[in-house]
Amino acid sequence: MTQHGMEASSSTGPAGVEWRVSDAPVPYVEAVDAMERRVADIRAGRAPDQVWLLEHPALYTAGTSAKDDDLLDANRFPVHRTGRGGQFTYHGPGQRVAYVMLDLKRRGSDVRAFVHGLEEWVIRTMATFNVVGERRDDRIGIWVAGDGGREDKIAAIGVRIRRWVTYHGVSINVEPNLEHFSGIVPCGIAPRGVVPGGINNEKFGVTSLVDLGLPVTLNDLDVALAETFGGVFDAL
Question: Exposure pattern of 94-125 as b/e (b: 16+ CB <10 Å)?
């Protein structure tokens, strides 16, 4: 174990992929550096594909499409500019981040199918907890429909692909502090209670498994992610 929990348990899981689980929050810069090294090793044939499950300390990340106006409180948490697709998102304790590093040359070389697979993976994982996760054509991520037309985001998706090897991935809200999302406009969608440009959006929000009344732990989610992964990605 290193100081920041970079060492973690690992095993070979579904689809011949190595699964790694970190047991302490991993600083964002260290995680990106580790992914960069792993992507290079996968591309060179020195290492197998990997799914890395972890948490980050509280922070905001800005994807390649992030708009400066969507950072509402720049002094609240560290802000990391990153090469993944998407806009602003929050990471923090109680949120499971799954970094997915796969060689798409061995899986059909189809970027759209990969992104669709990430969505399907989250949807099937949510279904194991009797939560109906849904795609939206005009919004990225996985959403849960509520009363009165309300929609709450439960998972974010942001990926990068370098020479056909994927990295970054998905983040799923298990029991994070949902108030921490109020410092940004997550993925360009203003949640309830956030007032960017004087507009208070009452339709969209952010939720978590625990917020939905489910006593789910990170370990529970990890088990479900492992169980559903092969059924999605073996087909790529």
Answer: bbbbbbbbbbbeebeeeeeebbebbbbbbbbb
Instruction: From the candidates 62, 187, 206, 232, give the one annotated as an active-site residue.
Output: 187
What type of residue is 225? L
Q: What residues have CB less than 8 Å from 68, skipping those under 6 apart?
A: none
Model confidence pLDDT, tens digit, residues 169-219: 999 999 999 999 989 988 766 555 544 443 445 688 899 999 999 999 999
Q: What is the sign of the dihedral through the CA atoms of 77, 97, 217 and 142?
A: positive
CA distance 84 to 39: 14
Range of the domain at 206: 8-233
Tell me 184's DSSP state. Answer: B
The one-letter code for the residue type at 100 is V
Q: What is the CATH number of the domain that holds 201?
A: 3.30.930.10
pTM of the prediction? Answer: 0.90
For this structure, is 187 an active site residue? yes
In a domain, 57, yes or no: yes
Residue with tokens 């489910």: 214
